[in-house]
Write a sequence for this structure.
């Protein structure tokens, strides 16, 4: 509703500015004709004197324009960079990672506690939880993984002063205090699915540490986590452990086994039958062809625990050559409890350990750039190990590489069309010169609103180029028509600017007003289109001023068009 009102107000002001003689009579009381609109009076009282001063002092005007452009470039270097603004979905997708060895029963206790905490917040509509892997088995995970789908109430029903970022930070801090040892990741339903599909890791962004040895990978991964944890803006930092599964390791000592006349295969077969069981035959159901394998193994008390396993009897050949002699498993093997792999992540047949993280309160590009510098300075990887950045940052890098081709190609195509129109390289360059003038306003719009540069903003800059060039074409084309029949280039330049003032401003303002609702919107889904609209609106607000003041100065200095008298 607010956007609709703003749109109506702006449209009314533009109409009043261009067609209302009454308002011009009020603002400019003297020497105003009844037929003069406010735009005409503005041109007579303000624009024409400024234009003549700029044309009379061309070098000073250009120096001032260059200073403004340089300041905008400095501001552009301070802009944050991200792939796309976070699309607000109106929900939260929270993943809890518990210790790998937790049981289903104990995991459910914590899941219910987390559900009750989430439901206690007035912004939350309901909570749906899932513990372990999904029913369809498409996600290989254990009881340590719990996921919560949290639909949120409409934002206008939230308590005053609370937004999504504040709510997320509050819940995160509370979980950290009440559930030490459990790692949490905050995302959104669609965002989480897209991020996992793009990178193969359950996280918005991730570092893939690629190597061969799992123990070395685990050790280096926690060093990376310690370095990343000191960087402001990094949240939900977690190493997705490959190790951590309690495993009983039975290592056969070949020398000891050889003294007893045993081969490793003999010992392995006995252990397999004692612990896992061995089929001794089939039991057939009377009157039917149904049959069931009969499996025997040691009783539970004889295989429950490491000490019981150490006492498993192994049949060794009797030295006298008659029968076998029972010996304990511990006499020929080392039995111990170790930490084994619970997950082994692979990509292109290479092992890796992911370190996932999210970015809140800062731009993604700035955080990753700082992280890369710190990792290069503080971490030395062994030979054969390397780091790959995955997730949104990887998409950002690919998008920037494409923009390095698309933007120059767009400018070149615009220049080619302008050359076909003017049939002059100088006029083509003069028309293209309005592009940096329009870009200044787009950069300032991003700076003043605190919006990061993204792919959406880049598309806005590309659209801004085309709109601004139209204004340059109007001024330059009309000047070229006048200068052929005029005896004075300055007079032709002034007349061209005064005549094209209205069409240039209306062309720019129409695009500005058209995207104003998108620039002011704040509803669900508006985040992606907002940077594009802000760039166009900000650039178009400033472009007419620069086009109608700086471009005439450039035309005077560099145009080769001469009137008939000057040519003679």
């Amino acid at each position: 509703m607010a956007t609709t009102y703003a749109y109506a107000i702006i449209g009314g002001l533009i109409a009043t500015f261009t067609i209302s003689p009454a308002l011009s009579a009020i603002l400019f009381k003297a020497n105003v004709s009844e037929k003069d609109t406010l735009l005409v009076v503005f041109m007579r009282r303000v624009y024409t004197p400024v234009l003549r001063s700029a044309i009379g002092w061309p070098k000073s005007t250009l120096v001032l324009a260059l200073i403004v452009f340089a300041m905008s470039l400095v501001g552009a270097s301070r802009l944050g960079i991200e792939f796309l603004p976070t699309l607000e979905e109106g929900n939260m997708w929270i993943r809890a990672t518990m210790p790998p060895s937790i049981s289903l029963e104990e995991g459910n206790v914590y899941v219910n506690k987390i559900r009750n905490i989430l439901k206690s917040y007035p912004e939350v509509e309901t909570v749906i939880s899932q513990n372990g892997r999904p029913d369809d088995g498409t996600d290989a995970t254990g009881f340590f993984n719990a996921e919560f789908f949290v639909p949120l109430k409409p934002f206008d029903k939230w308590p005053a002063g609370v937004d999504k970022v504040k709510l997320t930070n509050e819940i995160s801090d509370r979980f950290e205090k009440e559930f030490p040892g459990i790692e949490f990741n905050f995302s959104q339903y669609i965002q989480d699915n897209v991020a996992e599909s793009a990178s193969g890791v359950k996280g918005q962004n991730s570092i893939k540490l690629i190597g061969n040895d799992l123990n070395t990978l685990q050790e280096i991964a926690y060093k990376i986590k310690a370095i990343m944890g000191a960087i402001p803006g990094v949240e939900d930092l977690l190493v997705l452990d490959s190790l951590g599964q309690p495993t009983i390791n039975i290592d056969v000592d070949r020398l000891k086994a050889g003294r007893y006349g045993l081969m490793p295969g003999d010992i392995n077969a006995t252990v397999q039958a004692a612990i896992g069981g061995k089929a001794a035959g089939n039991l057939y159901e009377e009157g039917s062809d149904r049959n069931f394998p009969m499996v025997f193994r040691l009783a539970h008390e004889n295989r429950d625990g490491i000490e019981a396993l150490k006492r498993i009897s192994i049949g060794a050949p009797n030295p006298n050559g008659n029968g076998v002699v029972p010996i304990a498993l511990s006499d020929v093997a080392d039995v111990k409890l170790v930490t084994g792999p619970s997950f082994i992540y692979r990509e292109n047949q290479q092992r890796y350990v992911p370190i996932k993280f999210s970015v809140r309160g800062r731009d993604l590009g700035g955080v990753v750039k700082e992280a890369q510098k710190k990792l290069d300075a503080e971490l030395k990887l062994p030979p054969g190990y390397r780091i790959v950045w995955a997730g949104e940052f990887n998409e950002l890098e690919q998008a920037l590489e494409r923009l390095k081709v698309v933007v120059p190609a767009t400018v070149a195509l615009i220049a080619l069309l302008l050359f076909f129109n003017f049939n002059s390289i100088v006029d083509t360059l003069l028309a293209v010169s309005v592009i940096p003038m329009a870009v200044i306003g787009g950069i300032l719009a991003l700076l003043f609103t605190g919006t990061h540069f993204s792919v959406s903003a880049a598309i806005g800059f590309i659209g801004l180029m085309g709109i601004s060039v139209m204004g340059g074409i109007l001024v330059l084309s009309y000047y070229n028509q006048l200068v052929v029949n005029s005896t004075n280039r300055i007079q032709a330049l002034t007349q061209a600017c005064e005549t094209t003032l209205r069409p240039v401003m209306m062309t720019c303002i129409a695009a500005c007003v058209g995207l104003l609702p998108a620039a002011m919107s704040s509803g669900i889904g508006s985040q992606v289109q907002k940077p594009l609209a802000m760039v166009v609106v900000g650039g178009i607000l400033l472009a007419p001023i620069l086009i109608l003041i700086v471009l005439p100065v450039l035309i005077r200095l560099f145009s080769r068009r001469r009137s008939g008298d000057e040519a003679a």
User: Anything to note?
Assistant: The chain is about 55% helix and 15% strand. The radius of gyration is 37 Å.
